[in-house]
Write a structure and sequence with these properties.
This protein is α+β, with helices and mostly antiparallel strands. The radius of gyration is 21 Å and the shape is globular. A hairpin with a 2-residue loop joins strand 18 and strand 19. Helix content is about 35%, strand content about 25%. The longest helix is centred in the last third of the chain and has 28 residues. The N and C termini lie far apart (about 45 Å). It has a domain of about 230 residues: FAD/NAD(P)-binding domain.
Length: about 400
């Protein structure tokens, strides 16, 4: 029978922490998840789920439920704002021989966490403790200990391992003195959500990237609470402008009308402004303490790499921890998690997301023209388009890890 200490402790009840918890609990490993919030958070955040991640959710047995609560997106488009031209459209059906899921699913992350929470709550030995904030972490050679701040005071929990999936401001990472290396973009990102139908009114697909040397935009659809769904638009904003100005009714209305003249006022149901970082932790493992998701790496949202990378972290770590827990692998197996996932974060997620942003905002006319020309040629050539999609869908990089190859 498991003792209190023979369990995995997880700080963070978001999608990354709960994917790890469910994967471990399915194998009979006791888990306790601590989350500082009083309940599941349902604010709009990431939604894009790439084919490589859908494959992992299929292993967990939840891909059908995630798909049913989201939107299937077979295509995505690149637009040029100065000309108003749709430059290129990429069709994921070109990947039908490469994956069981030749499409992206737009499913808000709170729906994924809700699915996982309900499943975890039905497993004996798996606990999710809300209003429990991890404050202190200590690690010995054979155990970990965390002190949490709970509604009834401080409590100490012992475990065999600790997974820090507690976001970009991770207390676990800070407690373990792991540097978070990288930089912060000067501009902030403004997110506006509206039920306005950009598909029927503007001819857009469910996922769109709009290039402009002065002000780029991303526009994508999520399922919301059901038909007709919601569209989210993302813009770069002046770092020196007051937040209240950028979130004011007049400003956000002018922003949407400037990109997509509607002939009537927009119904803006959500607005948010956030700071954008590109950072990777110096290590993803310190003994029996491991970090994953935003606790380990953060990036700009262009291309939808963040949530996907975090889920992939969680599954990679869980698979290795299961082997170690059951005695089928030595402790050193966990070093492979650090090597594989940190390499992935640095050489793929960081590189790709930075490149995505720089291409959308490119100001040099020759560079812009070359980028748009390359997009057209790639989209119009099935072989080139397939290679482009294998990379953007994260399949190529995931296959590289699975094959034990270094990323290029």
């Amino acid at each position: 029978m498991a003792t209190q200490s023979s369990r995995v402790l997880i700080s963070g009840g978001g999608p990354v922490g709960l994917v790890a918890a469910y994967a471990l609990a399915q194998e009979g490993i006791p888990v306790t998840v601590f989350d500082e919030n009083s309940e599941l958070q349902e604010d709009p955040r990431a939604a894009t789920t790439h084919p490589a991640t859908l494959e992992l959710l299929a292993k967990l047995g939840i891909v059908e439920e995630v798909t049913s609560q989201g939107l299937v997106c077979p295509t995505f488009q690149f637009w040029d704002r100065p000309t108003g031209e749709m430059v290129a459209e990429f069709d994921h059906s070109l990947l039908r021989e490469d994956t069981e899921f030749p499409y992206v699913v737009q499913c808000e992350q709170f729906k994924l966490t809700r699915i996982l929470m309900e499943l975890i709550n039905d497993i004996d030995g798996a606990d999710i403790l809300f209003s429990h904030r991890v404050m202190l972490v200590s690690a010995a050679e054979d155990a970990v200990r965390v002190t949490v701040d709970a509604p009834d005071g401080e409590h100490t929990f012992n475990g065999s391992y600790l997974i820090g999936a507690d976001g970009g401001r991770s207390m676990v990472r800070k407690q373990m003195d792991i540097p978070f290396e990288g930089f912060t973009w000067p501009e902030r990102f403004l997110v506006l959500s509206t039920p306005f139908d950009f598909e029927s009114e503007c001819g857009m697909s469910f996922r769109n990237y709009i290039a402009d040397p002065d002000e780029w935009c991303n526009c994508f659809k999520v399922a919301g609470d059901g038909p007709p769904g919601l569209w989210r638009t993302v813009y770069p904003e002046d770092p020196g402008a007051p937040e209240e100005t950028l979130l004011a009714d007049e400003y956000v209305e002018r922003k949407l009308q400037g990109f997509f003249p509607a002939g009537k006022p927009y119904d803006i149901v959500h607005r948010n402004l956030y700071t954008v970082h590109q950072r990777v932790a110096a290590t993803f493992r310190k003994g029996r303490v491991l970090i994953a998701g935003d606790a380990a790496h953060v990036n700009n949202s262009i291309g939808g790499m963040g949530l996907n990378g975090g889920i992939q972290d969680a599954m990679n770590l869980a698979e290795k921890l299961i082997l170690v827990w059951k005695g089928d692998a030595e402790e050193e197996m966990l070093d492979m998690y650090d090597t594989e996932r940190r390499t992935f974060a640095v050489e793929f997620v960081q590189e790709q997301s930075i490149q995505n942003k720089k291409r959308l905002e490119a100001k040099n006319p020759e560079s812009r023209a070359a980028f748009l020309k390359s997009l057209r040629e790639t989209a119009n050539d099935p072989k080139l388009a397939r290679q482009f999609l294998l990379k953007s869908s994260m399949i190529e990089a995931m296959r590289g890890i699975e094959a034990g190859r270094c990323l290029n």
